[in-house]
Automatic annotation (TrEMBL), chains A, B:
The keyword Transport does not apply. Belongs to the GST superfamily. Tau family. Keywords: Cytoplasm, Detoxification, Transferase. SUPFAM superfamilies: GST C-terminal domain-like, Thioredoxin-like. The keyword Cell inner membrane does not apply. One of its GO terms (biological process) is toxin catabolic process. Residues 3-83 form the GST N-terminal domain. Its main location: cytoplasm. GO terms for molecular function: glutathione transferase activity. It is found in: Cytoplasm, Cytosol. This is glutathione transferase. It comes from the Eukaryota. Residues 88-219 form the GST C-terminal domain.
Amino acid sequence: MGEEVKVFGAWASPFSRRVELALRLKGVPYEYIEEDIYKNKSPLLLKYNPVHKKVPVLLHNGKAIAESLVILEYIEETWKNNSILPQDPYEKAMARFWAKFIDDKCWPAIRKAEWSPESEREKAMEEACECLKALESALNGNKFYGGHTIGLVDIAANFIGFWLSIVQEATERELLSAHKFPLLFNWSHDFVNCGIVQECLPPKDKVLAIFKARVAAPSN
Amino acid sequence: MGEEVKVFGAWASPFSRRVELALRLKGVPYEYIEEDIYKNKSPLLLKYNPVHKKVPVLLHNGKAIAESLVILEYIEETWKNNSILPQDPYEKAMARFWAKFIDDKCWPAIRKAEWSPESEREKAMEEACECLKALESALNGNKFYGGHTIGLVDIAANFIGFWLSIVQEATERELLSAHKFPLLFNWSHDFVNCGIVQECLPPKDKVLAIFKARVAAPSN
């Protein structure tokens, strides 16, 4: 009997893609369930994530786990092949530090820089650039945050690797460029060109259409 | 030769106390360095936590780690006695989920409920109560979140166990009471009455004086 592994996600959500990417890196077969998170959350999603009522949720043999970084740690501990975290406690702490930094600082700063009203934009762009600068330094000369292979921080940074360039195309506001952050720019190129990453990414034109619609109707 | 374990903290900070409590639970001797985080951060703090420039920082044999939840995981992995996390991956994920919930949701909601202007207070109080309700349910009939002993979630929730009752006394706004949240109230009582927790807590009168000064000068 195979085990039950289900992912409740949303196709455009970078957080859902994190979970799928980790499972694929480990070679774990799973069933993907698309949620309509804006208009019609399913009773199962509300049952499995009653606190946040958000995707992604991982369901493993009847047990539900929410919060993408918590799920990634669970995946790492449950399926031990193809590690996404270093074994050394200090290196592991550094990976957790940067993954948390990406969620707590980079994600809100980049959203604000790309989508805030013009009056707040200059400051927001500065803050987002500070975040990207810190993140670039954390590469430490490696191809990926995980070294030669993709690890927790690369997975957490997926929205910087893929979504950010599409947002930039829609808003015509450039944060990440080869000129400003050459190492991080190269990372984003290497990341999205991994075959296993490409398997998990949504079609670029569909994402671009969403962002362009948002530019056209900025109150949404 | 003993190992070097230093904690850079601030006496009134619940986040600094988390690190001290975890080290004491493990019986790890450490040197504590008080930082003047408001007026005069030390060059060492800026060196060891250049990204956030905040306490707490753990320095272990020359290696610095920031972010209290990241530090707690490092402590757990480095000193394996007296576990603060369950061994089972799912139970561990649940502990991480609730610790993250405490930081991401409870901490900002409680701060807002206690300190926001009157016009925003009713909604903020409702949100904070929702958080406490969820946190109460997570006790699952146990004395501590760690079961019979203090674990990661108890440590993370220290500000609800100790600081919240003092804030309530200063602001005269009650969030956590025996009437509203009897199980969580009992938990807070049991938590602050643990000898090892009491070793880590600042003097109540000093904390109360800070909060009363803030009530008297609400613009601060």
